[in-house]
Every structure is written in C-alpha cells, then in structure tokens.
C-alpha cells in the first residue's frame, strides 16, 4: 500500500482539543454513488480519509479530493483490513461512514457459497472489522459510526434475499454496537430506498426495467442525512433515518 498519509498532513494524529481541530471522517465507497455524494458534502468542513477498492479508484479519489488521505482497501479481503488501517496510525477519529456495498440481487436458490461469502464480506464483515479496528480512535473522539444500510435492512422479498440478509445483519450489528458503546460512540443507521446510482442501474437492468433516474432518490439527499446524523448535538443520537422515494 502507498503511504496513506501522502496526500495530507496527518489530520487524525492531532493532539489539539476537539474544538480547535477540524473533525476527521473516514468514508468507504466514496468513488461513486452515495459515497461520492457524502464525500462531496463533507469535504468543505471535515478532513476526509477515503478508502478505495483499488489503486485505480484511489487515483480517481486523489484527483477529486486532493486534500484527503486516500488508501487502498479491497473490502472483500477482510483479513487485510487490520494491517491497512493500522498504517493510518489514527489517534482520534470523529466518524466512520461505511458506505461501500454490492447488490447480490439474485434468488436464494441461485446463490453460490462464494457469492454469499463475497456479499457478506463487503456488506457486513468489513464493517465489523472497520469498527473493531477503529473503535479506540472513535472512543477518544467521542465519535460516530454512520452505517449506510438500506430499506432492505428492514424488508426482504423475492429476488433479493442475499442482499437483504446482509443488510438485516448489518442492522443487527449497528443495533448491538449502539448499546455496547452508548455514552462513548454514537451509532446511526441510514436506510435509503432506491437511490440513483450505478448499483440501482444494475438492479433495474437485472429486473429488465427501463432506468428512470427521476423516480429515485438523489444521492445528495442521503449525504444530507449523513451530515445530519454526524452533526446531531452531542447529548443526542440519530439512531436511524429512513428515506424513501415519493414514487413507489
Ligand atoms: N443505490 C441504492 O438504491 C441503494 C439503496 C439503499 C442502500 N444502498 C447502499 O448504499 C451504499 C452505496 O451504494 P451505491 O448505490 O452508491 O453503490 P455504487 O454506486 O455501486 O457504489 C459502490 C461503492 O462501493 C465500492 N465498493 C464496491 N466493492 C468494493 C470493495 N470490494 N472494496 C471497496 N469498495 C468497494 C465501490 O468502489 P469502486 O468504485 O472502486 O468499485 C463504490 O465506491 C451500499 O452499501 C448500498 O447497499 C444503495
């Protein structure tokens, strides 16, 4: 991995009091879709640490966010995360926004063990590992975990059992974590309905539907919800936000 701090001056290892320093937010999945909008929304007011799935994606992020710390982490490779995150030497972290995800919209009978494994690695196990590795830094900052879940974290149905299973499990993770860390780290779960993104294009194409972006939520709207959760005053906690398109 290239030096994770090469693009900025070590925002997170500051020993300044929280009020005197810019807050630091780590985001996964910031190259496209919802994650990209979250990074855009926060970039003016926060120091960003952005996880990219590949060197190519990292290049894209360095170009768009020249002040951000960018590092490469394929979230399907969960066992590599501890060492990669360790190289960031994060003393404090104000928030982690696990946003990267994959669809896996297919019927249960047609999903192989490898497909289940990859889907759960990216959508769930990587979040668990990010949290495990980053909790000390989050606790020091009285920080937040703001997970991008889905409407499918509440409802399942024909053809999206594996995806919904990963998002139900993610909700269980954040619900438990919220209680375990109450008073130390705040935990929010954001549940978007259909959002205009590459993932949604893939889903609509799999279903043989024409793509009409107007029917879906703009990614910027989800980014605003993330900022709201992040900036909820310290004595309170945004536990869950559900945002659905007006059109069904
Ligand atoms: N779109 C929707 O309708 C919708 C609705 C509800 C919830 N969500 C959730 O919102 C989140 C973002 O979805 P989106 O629609 O913005 O998806 P998207 O446009 O397909 O973008 C997916 C993001 O995840 C990253 N990613 C995928 N596999 C990765 C891996 N192995 N390692 C690291 N990063 C990886 C991608 O990085 P690369 O660019 O490098 O591939 C990309 O930045 C997901 O968790 C999704 O489940 C989406």
Describe, in short, the structure shown.
With 248 residues, the chain is α/β, with parallel strands linked by helices. It has helices spanning 33-42, 55-64, 81-86, 113-140, 161-180, 198-206, 219-231, and strands at 24-28, 47-52, 69-72, 95-97, 144-148, 186-192, 240-243.
Describe the model.
The protein is of the alpha/beta class and 248 residues long. It has a single domain (21-238), classed as NAD(P)-binding Rossmann-like Domain (Rossmann fold, 3-Layer(aba) Sandwich). It is 39% helix and 14% strand. The chain has 7 helices and 7 strands, in the order E-H-E-H-E-H-E-H-E-H-E-H-H-E. The protein has helices at residues 33-42, 55-64, 81-86, 113-140, 161-180, 198-206, 219-231, and strands at 24-28, 47-52, 69-72, 95-97, 144-148, 186-192, 240-243. Strands 3-2-1-4-5-6-7 form a 7-stranded parallel sheet, sandwiched between helices. The longest helix has 28 residues, at 113-140. It starts with 23 loop residues before the first strand and ends in a 5-residue tail after the last strand. The chain binds NADP nicotinamide-adenine-dinucleotide phosphate. NADP nicotinamide-adenine-dinucleotide phosphate binds next to helix 1 and helix 6. Residues 8-19 have a biased composition (Low complexity). This is Short chain dehydrogenase. Belongs to the short-chain dehydrogenases/reductases (SDR) family. Keywords: Oxidoreductase.
């Amino acid at each position: 991995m290239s030096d994770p701090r090469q693009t900025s001056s070590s925002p997170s290892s500051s020993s300044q009091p929280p009020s005197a320093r810019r807050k630091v937010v780590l985001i996964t999945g910031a190259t496209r879709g919802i994650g990209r909008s979250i990074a855009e929304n926060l970039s003016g007011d926060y120091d960003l640490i952005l996880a990219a799935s590949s060197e190519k994606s990292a290049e894209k992020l360095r170009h768009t966010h020249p002040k951000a710390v960018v590092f490469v982490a394929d979230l399907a490779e969960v066992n590599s995360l501890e060492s990669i995150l360790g190289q960031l030497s994060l003393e404090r972290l104000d928030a982690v926004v696990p946003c990267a995800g994959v669809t896996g919209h297919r019927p249960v009978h047609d999903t192989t063990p490898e497909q289940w494994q990859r889907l759960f690695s990216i959508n769930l196990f990587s979040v668990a590992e990010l949290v495990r590795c980053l909790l000390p830094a989050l606790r020091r900052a009285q920080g937040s975990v703001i997970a991008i879940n889905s409407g499918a974290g509440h409802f399942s149905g024909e053809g999206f059992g594996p995806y919904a299973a990963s998002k139900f499990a993610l909700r269980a993770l954040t619900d438990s974590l919220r209680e375990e860390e109450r008073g130390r780290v705040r935990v929010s779960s954001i549940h978007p309905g259909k959002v205009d993104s590459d993932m949604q294009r893939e889903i609509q194409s799999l279903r043989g539907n024409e793509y009409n972006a107007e029917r879906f939520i703009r990614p910027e709207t989800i980014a605003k919800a993330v900022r709201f959760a992040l900036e909820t005053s310290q004595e309170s906690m945004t536990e869950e936000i559900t945002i659905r398109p007006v059109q069904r």
